[in-house]
Specification:
Blueprint: H1 7-35, H2 57-78, H3 92-103, E1 115-126, E2 137-138, H4 139-151, E3 155-166, H5 169-184, E4 188-193, E5 195-196, H6 198-204, E6 209-212, E7 217-218, H7 231-237, E8 240-246, H8 254-257, H9 263-287, H10 293-302, H11 307-312, E9 318-319, H12 322-330, E10 340-342, H13 343-346, E11 361-368, E12 370-373, E13 383-385, H14 386-398, E14 402-411, E15 413-415, H15 416-430, E16 435-444, H16 446-451, E17 456-459, E18 464-466, E19 470-476, H17 478-484, H18 508-533, H19 537-543, E20 548-550, H20 551-557, E21 562-563, H21 566-576, E22 586-589, H22 597-601, H23 607-619, E23 638-640
Length: about 675
């Protein structure tokens, strides 16, 4: 009686027998069809293998979906409509005025006539202008220098030394447009590339000429994305992550909760890859004369590593060492050595010297980094705290001399409460003054929450935005404590007083309360997004659920109003303020990053960045400590973008809300 098969065992065996017969029939049909293939003009196959069609249906559907996504990405890339930066040559009278101003410039602002502007672009490109003594690059200063050089009669060309970049694609698009306007002035632009991949070549291709040394490490092999997952490692050491995420695509907690990438995350990331790849291919084909998209694809698929082959096929101008290139450039200037001015010195030259400022003022408030809470941590660099941002907003609202405001956002998200407080203040400001949000590399989750408080939103085509969702978590360290012999005992009053306790998992009631609070935060976020964008919540739900979008798709979904950079946002502010389109204004940068003594020594890196870089090298995590979940203390709702250990190369850039290595709570609280 014990050996008698159970009913479900009988059913399973019956099912296995049916499957075996089906495979045999399929094999026979395939064999007959193949063995008679010569009658139909095909060679017979002596050893056919069974190929049940049922096993391929899912793969075929997935392939069709991928092809459809690729076609959509190509259509978007071809039809992208981003206004070019206008170039208006100075009239004779303006030239005399500019020459007089430059002649009386202070000694440290003097530049020799016939100079070449040299900029070394590599590493992190900050969103906020650095302090006086900081050494790192910043996007506003790079763009400002290129604008001044366009109209400066003393500058004859730009020479870019490009090293591996740690920034997103949106910043590169902004720099690219400024280089294109510079070329309209008739001055030469040269890029020298020693090492790099797609991002570095993307930027270099915006210059008229590209040079590399013979032994350069320049490789274009395509784009990829990789996720890292810690759940298996955490299980082995006795740590249980208890994560509540609201939204099908909200993958910020997956690094802790899962051992592999979810289908929803694959779908979202595949769409991002399609958009990035299509934009890269179309842009390079447009920048390199005589090239088309198929040739760029072939270049990537061949993974060319020989510089001579790149030169022969017209992807670079020539192969030269740095001294040879500088000797060649010197022949275009004085002929007696290259006359040049570097990035830092030229930054001291005023925009007003070229008549590029007007009487009316538009303020730019820049926010960059993870939203960490209400008060700044450390020196406040690399993160967004609601309190100082709100103080700036209120100060601007009271200033009657300010005609409008641009909020610049570069954030993967963070604390829900801080995001909501800033959203409220921005809504109030938008009722007093024209207010437009301009998105940088990423404005997702909490970053999008801030942006939607503005009257209009502008994004770059490759800005990562959306991620309207919530994730919150706590760690159960009970098993780990038991293994290491660490004891913790708590006395409490109140039904949910121990909901944050890390020495045990949630009870059923606590877990329900935890989930309900996360859902409440999500619905509040989604409904406010719907209110801000003029949609019904049910419609917004289609574009929410934690999914991230490129700017190309966000404008189709109604999440943003226009594509472009800071210049487009300024034009919208002028339009809302009733100014003429060609009226000059003065842009006032309110935000400055603070430089600590350590950052001066380390070239701009903070202590946390150095530590995260060290730990990240060991566990294959990005070097960004941004946008972490609360690992101890009060559970709170977080608004993070997707978690990647990115070679999405999205490219070596800390653009996402990646979870850092777990940190044990303090032994005494």
């Amino acid at each position: 009686r014990q050996c008698r098969p159970r009913p479900h065992e009988k059913q399973r065996r019956k099912w296995d027998e049916q499957q075996r017969k089906t495979m045999i029939r399929t094999w026979n049909r395939t064999a007959i069809r193949v063995n008679h293939g010569s009658k139909r003009g095909r060679k017979p196959n002596a050893s056919p293998k069974p190929t049940p069609s049922i096993l391929n249906e899912g793969d075929d559907v997935e392939k069709d979906q991928r092809k459809q996504g690729e076609r959509e990405a190509w259509e978007l890339a071809k039809n992208v409509d981003v206004p070019e930066l206008a170039y208006d040559a100075l009239e004779d009278k303006q030239k005399y005025i500019v020459a007089a101003k430059l002649a009386w410039a202070l000694p440290w602002k003097q530049v020799k006539r016939g100079s070449v502007l040299i900029m070394e672009l590599g590493g992190t490109v900050a969103e906020i202008k650095p302090g006086r003594f900081a050494q790192n690059l910043s996007l506003p200063q790079i763009c400002e220098n290129l604008t001044k050089a366009t109209y400066d009669p003393r500058i004859v060309g730009v020479y870019l030394k490009i090293d591996p970049l740690q920034c997103g694609w949106a910043k590169l698009q902004e720099i690219k447009r400024h280089l294109e306007r510079f070329r309209k002035s008739g001055k030469f632009s040269v890029a020298f590339l020693t090492m790099g991949g797609e991002k570095e070549y993307y930027l270099a291709s915006s210059c008229e000429e590209i040079y590399v040394p013979p032994s350069a490490y320049v490789g274009l092999r395509g784009l990829s994305v990789m996720g890292t997952f810690l759940r298996g490692a955490l299980d082995k050491i006795g740590i249980e992550p208890q994560v509540q995420r609201i939204g099908k695509y909200k993958s910020a907690g997956d690094q802790l909760q899962r051992t592999s990438m979810s289908e929803a995350q694959k779908e979202a990331l595949d769409a991002l890859l399609n958009d990035l790849y299509a934009n890269f291919v179309s842009t390079v084909a447009e920048n390199r004369s005589g090239k088309d998209e198929e040739q760029v694809k072939e270049l990537i698929d061949n993974a060319v590593y020989e510089m001579s082959q790149l030169k022969d096929n017209g992807w670079i101008t020539d192969i030269k060492y740095e001294d040879e290139l500088e000797e060649m450039i010197s022949q275009r200037t004085s002929g007696r050595g290259m006359t040049s001015v570097n990035y830092k010195r030229y930054s001291k030259v005023s925009m007003g010297a070229f008549g590029l400022r007007g009487k009316k003022r538009i303020v730019v408030i820049r926010t960059s980094g993870a939203i960490t809470g209400q008060k700044p941590t450390g020196n406040g660099s690399g993160s967004i705290a609601s309190k100082p941002v709100i103080e700036q907003i209120r100060r601007v609202k009271k200033d009657k001399s300010i005609a409008g405001v641009v909020l610049r956002v570069d954030s993967p998200g963070g604390d829900a409460l801080a995001s909501d407080l800033m959203w409220r203040e921005l809504r109030l400001l938008s009722q007093e003054k024209p207010l437009v949000a301009s998105m940088s590399d990423v404005a997702a989750s909490g970053g999008y929450y801030m942006s939607m408080g503005c009257s209009k939103i502008v994004a770059e085509p490759l800005t990562i935005t959306g991620s309207i969702g919530v994730v919150t978590a706590k760690f159960n360290l009970g098993e780990l404590y038991q293994k290491i012999g660490y004891g913790k005992e708590v006395l409490s009053k109140g039904k949910f007083a121990e909901i944050q306790l890390d020495s045990r998992p949630f009870t059923e009631e606590e877990e329900k309360k935890f989930a309900d609070s996360a859902m409440y935060a999500y619905e509040s976020f989604r409904n406010k997004a719907a209110l801000s964008r003029g949609m019904e919540p049910d419609i917004m739900e289609q574009y929410a659920q934690g999914r991230v979008w490129t700017g190309l798709r966000a404008i189709q979904n109604g999440l943003v109003d226009a594509l472009g950079g800071l210049d487009v946002a300024v034009d919208l502010v002028k339009e809302m303020a009733g100014m003429k389109p060609d009226e000059k204004v003065s842009l006032i940068e309110l935000s400055r990053s603070k430089a600590s003594p350590l950052s001066l020594v380390t070239g701009g890196a903070t202590t946390s960045e150095i530590f995260a870089s060290f730990v990240g090298a060991m566990v294959d995590l990005p070097s960004s400590p941004s946008a972490s979940l609360p690992l101890s203390g009060q559970p709170q709702a977080r608004m993070e973008s997707i978690g990647l250990s990115s070679s999405l190369d999205l490219g070596n850039a800390p653009w996402t809300g990646v979870l850092p290595p777990f940190v044990l709570p303090p032994l005494e609280e």
